[in-house]
Amino acid sequence: MQWETVIGLEIHAQLSTQSKIFSGSATTFGAEPNTQASLVDLAMPGTLPVLNQEAVRMAVKFGLAIEAEIGRTNVFARKNYFYPDLPKGYQTSQMDHPVVGKGHLDISLEDGTIKRVGITRAHLEEDAGKSLHEDFHGMSGIDLNRAGTPLLEIVSEPDMRSAKEAVAYVKAIHALVRYLGICDGNMAEGSLRCDCNVSVRPKGQEAFGTRAEIKNVNSFRFIEKAINHEIQRQIDLIEDGGKVVQETRLYDPSKDETRSMRGKEEANDYRYFPCPDLLPVRLEEDFLDAVRQSLPELPTQKRDRFQSQFGLSVYDASVLSASREMAEYFEQVQQACGDAKLAANWVMGELSSLLNKDGLEIEQSLVSAEQLGGLILRIKDNTISGKIAKTVFEALAAGKGATADEVIEKEGLKQVTDSGAIESMLDEVLAANAAQVEQYRASDEAKRAKMFGFFVGQAMKASKGKANPGQVNELLKQKLEG
Amino acid sequence: MALERSEVEKIAHLARLGLDEAELPHTTATLNSILGLIDQMQAVNTDGIEPLAHPLEAVQRLRADAVTETNQRAAYQAIAPAVENGLYLVPKVIE
């Protein structure tokens, strides 16, 4: 049987406000336990929440960026459940009237096509604290620093059909929230967390299969692995005559498997109701206008501009606009060298492999945009060949010079373009390979073409790669034919 | 609409209320009388009336995003039954 996968995602993005959503406590990551938990966060009797304007502004910013309807009147609700890291006994969230309604996001797939993913809603809520289950004499330790940190929960439509599409969507959301400056996107610190709803159905069937939810997957790689594992588990189960149960599962990266969180589900009845401690939030037109004015150029807009302004392919433009840092680096290189194509090739080629090799982000690059731009200028004016340029690039990365010019000067890498010098070098090469020259001259056209490469190789070797390849080709041809 | 005893038991469990055998019939009756009032309200025609999110005709005031709280951990933890290394200790919540 042919199976089709259906995936919907819930992404929790931690908003990068200074203070919490309902209190004036700091939100700094990694502080000493409970030093950022105030009376409001501890749910002491008599305290009341006061909503953080910045959290609302950030949520609206996201909503406008995905062209969503904004909840001009949005309402907070209580989601009731008991857990020690939730001191109030309910999470203040939004249910029927979220701040962000229906919108969409376009994602680029590997084959270069663009897919539109529907976003059902995004709502504001508070994070819970953290439970530490190490042994405290048979007890659990509770740190409430994170309790009350503002979250934007972004709920997608079940529009994704493979783990790869799901990852592309998460990456697009990740890039967007960072472009907007509303979330630092640090998945290792939990600033962006993902719950994956996965189901399978026979290809061609309209109705959805029963879904399982994989909770809290915290890296792009794990999202792909967890979903693929879950798809296979469900298919195996159904093909063996079993049934998928609607449940929450946990992904274990060390074993590459998902397992059921049975037991927690039993009380999954949250009895939402409007929070009487908070009044409805009304958003006025001038507030929305001000937020609209503050929107930066978004990833998709940047991608389109890179195509129209610089003539880049969809693929190149998508890669280069994938993160704000990458786009800024590319544009700086482009400005320094005035050649978008070469700038794109170098950023996506040599620079990206260097970053990958060292496990660095582009903002930590050992070669600055100005240095790379200066290097490309020297390729363009024929001071160095593309091959020597790689040597110069490596030297810059190793800190062997402040600029490409300095490296070229110091290492004597300047391309030889003096035809007299190239000619005498070629004469030496031909003299040293007299037998091959004779063979060449005795051969037919097809064979000669093959042998020609041998002489070019010898000549480039003799010049340590510094001879201008175009001139070498031309002069060598003359000498061999002549 | 009326609640069965089993539903009241379920709600009590969700709210972590320990109702004993003697209290259950009384609680069920009391809750049902509230539901009776709700049934009466639901019989009213509310077409075209916007649902009320809050009884006050007012909107939420927002505060500026500023850190105004300082670390008062020692004071807050003075009344906690058990603390260690700055953590509040509670009965173990996972097996």
Describe the structure.
The complex is a heterodimer of chains A (482) and B (95). With 482 residues, chain A is α+β, with helices and mostly antiparallel strands. In chain A, 41% of the residues lie in helices and 20% in strands. Chain A is built from 15 helices and 16 strands. In chain A, strands 6-7-10-1-11-12-13-14 form an 8-stranded mixed β-sheet. Chain A has a 3-stranded antiparallel β-sheet with strand order 5-4-15, with no helix packed on it. Chain A is elongated and about 95 Å long. The termini of chain A are far apart. The longest helix of chain B has 20 residues, at 23-42. In chain B, a hairpin with a 2-residue loop joins strand 2 and strand 3 (87-91). Chain B is flat and about 55 Å long. Chain B has a domain at 5-42: Histone, subunit A (Orthogonal Bundle), CATH 1.10.20. In chain B, strands 2-3 form a two-stranded antiparallel sheet. By secondary structure, chain B is an alpha+beta fold. The A-B interface holds A 17-19, 23-26, 32-39, 42, 50-56, 73, 75, 80, 82-84, 97, 131-133, 136-144, 267, 269, 271, 274, 276, 278-282 and B 13-14, 16, 53-54, 56, 58-69, 71-73, 76-77, 82, 84-94. Chain A: Belongs to the GatB/GatE family. GatB subfamily. Chain A: Its EC number is 6.3.5.-. Chain A: Keywords: ATP-binding, Ligase, Nucleotide-binding, Protein biosynthesis, Transferase. Chain A: Residues 328-480 form the Asn/Gln amidotransferase domain. Chain A: This is Aspartyl/glutamyl-tRNA(Asn/Gln) amidotransferase subunit B.
Query: Helix amount of chain B, in percent?
Result: 25-40%
Quaternary state of this entry equals heterodimer
Strand order of the largest sheet of chain A: 6-7-10-1-11-12-13-14
The main sheet of chain B comes to: 2 strands, antiparallel
How many helical elements of chain B?
3
Family (chain A): Belongs to the GatB/GatE family. GatB subfamily.
Catalytic activity (chain A): L-aspartyl-tRNA(Asn) + L-glutamine + ATP + H2O = L-asparaginyl-tRNA(Asn) + L-glutamate + ADP + phosphate + 2 H(+); L-glutamyl-tRNA(Gln) + L-glutamine + ATP + H2O = L-glutaminyl-tRNA(Gln) + L-glutamate + ADP + phosphate + H(+)
Subunit structure (chain A): Heterotrimer of A, B and C subunits.
Protein name (chain A): Aspartyl/glutamyl-tRNA(Asn/Gln) amidotransferase subunit B
